[in-house]
Amino acid sequence: MASHGAPDTWPARCPPGWFAGLPVLVAGLGRSGRAAARHLADAGADVVACDDAPDLDTGELAAFGVKTHLGPAGPALLDGRALLVVAPGLPEAHPLIQGARQRGVPVWSEIELAARVATMPLVGVTGTNGKTTTTELAAAMLTASGVQAVAAGNVGLPLIDAVLDRHPPDAVVVELSSFQLRFSWTLRLEAGAWLNFAADHLDWHPGLTAYAEAKAKVWANQGPDDWSVYGADDPVVAANVADAPGTPVPFTTGRAAPGGLGLEAGVALSKVPGHEGGLWRAAALRLPGRHNLANAIAASGVAMALPPGWPWPWAPTRPAWPGRWPPSGPGRTGWPPWARSAGSSSSTTPRPPTRTPPPAPWPPSHGSSGSPGDATRAWTSTTWSPGRPTGWSGWCWSGRRPRS
Fold it and tell me: How far apart are CA 128 and CA 171, in angstroms?
């Protein structure tokens, strides 16, 4: 522990090897806790893992050299530990968390651990409802644009697994619950979206104020060039964005505000400076409900926020259609990943996968190196048609039901 110094001197970004020799307690052996324990042990940390459940299979962890303790855990497990990494299932009132705070032992979520070792851009989504759908849509939009992106975090794949994959993605879209955000300290998102807010999880948080404060951490550590995407129609979210250090980007299913995203004449529209233009037709989004229109508009904002120079076929700053799709796109499966959604308007209410047409990428403008014909061939049952002379779009997209 001495070689790592005091916790307040630990680096906000470091390679996994920095944790070698650090005595860590990982509490909670669900998917994210197990992933954190494995990666820490693989990096050379001295890992003890515990869970209140008395009977769990810990053979996989033992193979990595992780020592385990099963059954109710008290603060004595913190003896000699320099760091506590907690799974999102542990409430803030848990004896281990309270004991760590009393002893001055840092408490991290698995998200915080992953953020410290990540080497690629991270964008993220939180909210009481709709965050799974929005996360999956944003990841699929990026992938369909030629950026290899994955959805991780609360959506299922632990973020630590995503960022330390042997073949790491170009970017990660992170679904973030308030539990995960509560104990995240250095997480910086190039785009952080807070969709909405409603009374929930009060069995975990001390109260509504603490719940809102945890959600607002989706914008913590942002710089002025990062995007703070927020649901403009939610009064709690809109009030909190005033303290966000990033660039506020409101979204709504009504008319887009200056600097924001909205829906006009049936077209999702961006008025974000440098990214002005139409994005996709609402009729092409077959996910039912106006809440899913809001989710898709928010997802567009998250995906658009990555640095300039990325291959955006649908951005006005780079209007040319590349004439190709990644291996998971229509050329292989008939439809890109965002044509199917296994999520729902709430991550806690899963529904069976459906096969639906996608929100369309920004189409090529007149004079671009791509052509409507290229796009039509890339998409099954898709047509391009001249857009109205509104000044923001040379081409508009229209889609028909996919062939089965």
Answer: 24
